[in-house]
C-alpha cells in the first residue's frame, strides 16, 4: 500500500488492535484515499495539515504533492510508525504528537506564511469540537476535506427548517461553505464502523461575508442558547440571554423582524447574525 502497511498487516506485525477510545477506524481502500486527496485540489505551494494520519493511507497520496506537510497524531505508536516511514522516504514532513484539539492552527499558518489546507479522516467523537475550533481559527485556514460520520456531515451542511439544522449549520454557513462530496460505506474501514461516512469540503473565504462587525463568540452564544431548547419558541429558549427580561427580548426580536413565537430551526443564519448585532449594540 504505497510503502505503508495495511491495518491487518500492521496489527499482525505489531500486535494490539485499533483503540476504541480514540475512535480508530482505518480506511483500507486506496482509491477512496486518492479521491479524498484529489478533492483538496492541492498545489505545490500549499501548506497541508493531515489530521490523524493513522497508518498513512492518505499520507501516501499527500507526500508526492506536499513539500510542506504537517501530520497531527495523538497515538504515540502510530506517530512512531509514520515517522519511520517518512525517514525511509526522505520526506521532511513534520509529525506533531498532540491532540488535534490543542493544535495551534494560527501559529502554524503564521510560521508558514500562508493559510492552511486540512485533510483528514476525523474520529467521530471529536468532529463537532474540532469544527468549533476551526471556526475560531478560520482566518488561518483556506479549506479542508474531511471524512466524517454521515449524520454529522448532514448536520454541518443543513439548511433552515430541516431536522439536521443546528448550531454548526448556522456558523459554518455564515463563515464558510460546506459541500458534501461522496459517501463511504462501513466496509471500507478496519474495523468497520456501524454507520456510513461522508466526505465533505469546507472552504473559509479570505473575504468573509459582511456581518456588520458581529463578534463570533457573541454569535455562537446566541445560537447555542437558541438551539439548546430547539422545541421551544425563541421567546422561551432565549429567555435571560444577554441579561434581557422577557419583554425586552420580545421587543428586540420584533425590532429585527423576527416573530418571537418562531423556533430556532426556521431562522436563517443571517437572521441570527442580525439579532446578535442588534443585541450587541444595546439597542434593545
Automatic annotation (TrEMBL):
Pfam families: RrnaAD (PF00398). Signal peptide: none annotated. It comes from the Bacteria. It catalyses: adenosine(1518)/adenosine(1519) in 16S rRNA + 4 S-adenosyl-L-methionine = N(6)-dimethyladenosine(1518)/N(6)-dimethyladenosine(1519) in 16S rRNA + 4 S-adenosyl-L-homocysteine + 4 H(+). GO terms for molecular function: 16S rRNA (adenine(1518)-N(6)/adenine(1519)-N(6))-dimethyltransferase activity; RNA binding. Keywords: Cytoplasm, Methyltransferase, RNA-binding, rRNA processing, S-adenosyl-L-methionine, Transferase. GO terms for cellular component: cytosol. It is found in: Cytoplasm. SMART domains: rADc. Its EC number is 2.1.1.182. Residues 32-206 form the Ribosomal RNA adenine methylase transferase N-terminal domain. Specifically dimethylates two adjacent adenosines (A1518 and A1519) in the loop of a conserved hairpin near the 3'-end of 16S rRNA in the 30S particle. May play a critical role in biogenesis of 30S subunits. Belongs to the class I-like SAM-binding methyltransferase superfamily. rRNA adenine N(6)-methyltransferase family. RsmA subfamily. This is Ribosomal RNA small subunit methyltransferase A. It comes from Desulfosoma caldarium. The lineage of its organism: Bacteria, Pseudomonadati, Thermodesulfobacteriota, Syntrophobacteria, Syntrophobacterales. The gene is rsmA.
Amino acid at each position: 500500500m504505497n510503502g505503508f502497511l495495511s491495518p491487518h498487516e500492521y496489527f499482525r506485525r505489531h500486535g494490539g488492535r485499533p483503540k476504541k477510545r480514540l475512535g480508530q477506524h482505518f480506511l483500507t481502500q486506496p482509491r477512496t484515499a486518492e479521491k479524498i486527496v484529489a478533492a483538496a485540489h492541492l498545489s505545490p505551494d500549499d501548506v497541508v495539515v493531515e489530521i490523524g494520519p493513522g497508518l498513512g493511507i492518505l499520507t501516501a497520496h499527500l507526500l508526492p504533492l506536499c513539500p510542506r506537510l504537517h501530520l497531527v497524531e495523538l497515538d504515540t505508536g502510530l506517530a512512531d510508525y509514520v515517522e519511520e516511514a517518512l525517514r525511509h522516504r526522505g520526506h521532511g514532513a513534520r509529525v506533531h504528537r498532540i491532540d488535534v484539539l490543542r493544535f495551534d492552527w494560527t501559529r502554524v499558518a503564521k510560521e508558514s506564511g500562508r493559510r492552511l489546507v486540512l485533510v483528514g479522516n476525523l474520529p467521530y467523537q471529536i468532529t463537532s469540537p474540532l469544527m468549533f475550533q476551526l471556526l475560531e481559527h478560520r482566518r488561518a485556514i483556506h479549506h479542508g476535506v474531511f471524512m466524517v460520520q454521515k449524520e454529522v456531515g448532514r448536520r454541518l451542511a443543513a439548511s433552515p427548517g430541516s431536522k439536521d439544522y443546528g448550531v454548526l449549520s448556522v456558523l459554518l454557513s455564515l463563515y464558510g461553505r460546506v459541500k458534501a462530496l461522496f459517501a463511504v460505506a462501513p466496509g471500507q474501514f478496519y474495523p468497520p464502523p456501524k454507520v456510513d461516512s461522508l466526505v465533505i469540503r469546507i472552504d473559509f473565504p479570505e473575504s468573509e461575508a459582511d456581518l456588520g462587525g458581529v463578534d463570533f463568540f457573541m454569535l455562537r452564544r446566541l445560537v447555542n442558547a437558541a438551539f439548546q431548547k430547539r422545541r421551544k419558541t425563541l421567546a422561551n429558549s432565549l429567555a435571560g440571554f444577554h441579561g434581557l427580561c422577557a419583554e425586552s427580548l420580545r421587543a428586540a426580536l420584533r425590532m429585527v423582524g423576527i416573530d418571537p413565537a418562531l423556533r430556532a430551526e426556521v431562522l436563517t443564519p443571517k437572521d441570527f447574525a442580525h439579532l446578535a448585532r442588534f443585541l450587541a449594540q444595546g439597542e434593545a
